[in-house]
Amino acid sequence: MTAENGSHAALTIPERGRGVAVWRQIADQLERAIGQRQYEPGEQLPTEMALAAEFGVNRHTVRRALAVLDEAGLIHVEQGRGSFVRELMVDYRLGVRTRFSRNLFDQQLAPSSELLRAAHGVADRTIATRLGIPVGAAVEVVEMLGYADGQRITLGTHFLSSKRFPGFAGRYRELNSITLAFRSFGLTDYRRAVSHVVARLPEPEEARLLRIRATRPLLVTEAVNVDLEGRPVEFCIARFVSDRVRLVVESGTTDE
Fold it and tell me: Which GO terms describe its molecular function (predicted)?
């Protein structure tokens, strides 16, 4: 959380002679600031020199405080770059029934999403092959950002046949849930048929939407979901921020 003028809340000069080491007081203040989101996950902390000046101490004292935060897993120090607030790591299971919300709820994380696009499009060769429809056929397109505890972890684009699910994009806009939108069409269950996983650097628009540097790799899954008769119902491309998400493939997993 930042002040309205864009600067961080002021830190307090430690009190000497109060029975608590100065470096510990500094570590406690920074820990509170991180916990209160005055410094966001992934954000760089001020330099050792800047912190030393603000706290009125030498750099050795600041360095000891930062080492404590590093050991506690609150920050990570990159040689030559500085100290950064550590981001959460999500174990995202790829199973027979992979559901975004359930994956996060199982880890006591709060899921949320932000709709970017709900529109109509046409199937290119890849989409047509995955959905088993002709090239050029009408498709529903839903694109969204996925959050875990307020952090952006994934950018997903979903494609569905407009012939089978007419108006699905609009239905999703109303219900804000892929599963609920499917149910509104009478599809009460579906499963993952196949997932392909690759690692690559983000495209400029992906980096902008996920708010990451262009040098941070993505884990990209291309998945096909099918109904219980084995007919394709959805093709999804999901881009996960690789240092926020671990993809866990569990044979026989059924995430209800």
Answer: DNA binding; DNA-binding transcription factor activity
Token readout for 80 is 């030559």
Which residues, at least 6 apart from 231, have a Cβ–Cβ distance to it below 8 Å? 132
> In terms of C-beta density within 10 A (0-12 exposed, 13-18 middle, 19 or more buried), how is residue 151 classed?
middle
pLDDT digits (tens, 9 = 90+) for 101-149: 888 999 888 999 999 999 999 999 999 999 999 999 999 999 999 999 8
Pairing of strands 90-94, 82-85: unpaired
Count the residues in the chain: 256
**What domains lie within the chain, and their CATH numbers?**
22-85 (1.10.10.10), 90-249 (3.40.1410.10)
pLDDT tens track for 145-192: 999 988 889 999 999 999 999 999 999 999 999 999 999 999 999 999
